[in-house]
Amino acid sequence: MPELPEVESTRRRLVPSMVRARITAVDLRRPDLRGPFPRRFAARLTGQTVNALDRRAKYLVASLSSGETLLMHLGMSGSFRTLPDGPARRAEALDPHDHVVFHMSSGRAIVFNDPRRFGMMELVAAGKLARHAVIGRLGPEPLSSNFDGAALARACRGKKTSLKAALLDQRVVAGLGNIYASEALHIAGISPTRRASILATASGAPREAAHRLADAVRFVLEKAIARQSPGTYRDDRFLVYDRAGERCSKDGCSGVIKRRVQTGRSTFFCPVCQR
DNA sequence: ATTGAGACCTGTCGGC
DNA sequence: TGCCGACAGGTCTCAA
Hints:
Blueprint: H1 4-18, E1 23-28, H2 41-45, E2 50-56, E3 59-64, E4 69-73, E5 79-84, H3 85-88, E6 98-104, E7 108-113, E8 120-124, H4 149-156, H5 163-168, H6 178-188, H7 208-228, E9 258-262, E10 265-269
Antiparallel strand pairs: 1-6, 2-3, 3-4, 4-8, 5-7, 6-7, 9-10
The chain binds a DNA duplex through helix 6.
């Protein structure tokens, strides 16, 4: 379930048991996750204090007392849960897809579960994060002041690929995934198949659609994060995602939601109100 | 350099 | 019921 909103709510959920707590032990139950898994991963983490837990795009970024950074990605099917540390040391409390367990001095255990194992963990040396091959090339955070119509237009200038594909490119905007890319295009009323370059003039200045799309991106993500806060009503119906064949919900629109495949991923859109 | 196809891995669901 | 293909919220690598 992980796009930016899910990663962000995961982060918020983990902060109380993880931040300012020491890693007392790491149980690496299955080390063949994606990414350059350092040798002696567990030993290098053990004894370190987590000074902060941040998010960049869909990555969780744990700052460690050594100055190193622990990067964590949920892939397609990853999730974290916490439980009291004692029970987490008993095998029967864990499932076969619980691959990593961090035992924390807070008395909590943080368990990484990932059936498909597209998830990733990587220990990055102090000072190397900004030049990291992926992190260093990420586009703006969509909820930050660095992201607006002008930034989006600049990133899409001259791009021959579709707008849908451009929104999934983490160098254009960091953290959007397949669901919210479709949702944002629907809110903005723009067809997912149009070329990304239409957002900018030849000189790279933003056209009106760029502002509308950037606003829609921000809107869907903020709404999704708010919806997932603990204790709030969770309404996870989407406007278009996974709703092929249903009526478009936009006021006054008589369209029917269509599904099509773009660069190998499903796109959902209304052919009537998205032009 | 940019772009799209295929690969990675497991689970679930719908159709026959 | 069981088998089989299609599909799943991500990203990496490779070749055109």
